[in-house]
Amino acid sequence: MNSKQQASQSLRSLLNGGAYPPGSRLPPERDLMLRLGLSRRALRLGLEQLEAEGRLWRHVGKGTFVGTRPPERELGMSLITASTSPAELMDLCLWTEPTYARVAATRASRMDIDNLRYLLDKSAAARDAATWDIWDVRLHRAIAEATHNALALAVFDSLNAVREEGAWRRLRNDPTTAERFEELTLHHRQIVDAIARHDPSAAEAAMRRHLRSVQHALLLEDADGETEDGDDTPIDLLRNAFQEKAQ
């Protein structure tokens, strides 16, 4: 077995191990050389072989990614998702969504407000995780729509696209207890009420308070959600909340 074949086999074993799912970025070459016991030349030959097989793709200046190269329209978002973090996503939500709520309070039409109240009622009536998430996202998006600014809505959709990526789906406004469910529902109601009465300052403050609460909960989940091996494990954040709510 020559060096190229050995490197290719080592890389296949690495990918087959499941540590790097499709769309994830491989470690830098230096780390791979040490981990696989390969020379730089052999590693690059192996990377070229797996790229030819369609198992990897490389982007100059960004790194090597697992899977086939995505369509160009999806490439930018994939790279952003691979290079950012949950903390950065929450930062950007905090920088944008309170302003959306403030602007919505000055621009929302009667139809916008009726839609917000409809979505609020739907989220409050949720009985399972999937239903809660659908109406939660739709409510937040409707607030962005109520700004009547197409670019603001596009920014919201981009942030939500990042949140929909694989492990990022952990970033939900999901309640973990019945009390937390009631708290988040109250937050939503305060935001919608402020927009409905055209109170920009109150709408902005209510949205910021809501997102700060979500950010705090996520930090606690990150601290508590690690296994003994240090790996994050997805959990059903809503199961207990909806069981308690149904009682």
From TrEMBL:
Keywords: DNA-binding, Transcription, Transcription regulation. It comes from the Bacteria. CDD domains: WHTH_GntR (cd07377). Residues 1-26 are annotated as: Disordered. Residues 1-13 have a biased composition (Polar residues). InterPro entries: GntR_C (IPR011711), TF_FadR/GntR_C (IPR008920), Tscrpt_reg_HTH_GntR (IPR000524), WH-like_DNA-bd_sf (IPR036388), WH_DNA-bd_sf (IPR036390). Residues 1-69 form the HTH gntR-type domain. This is FadR/GntR family transcriptional regulator.
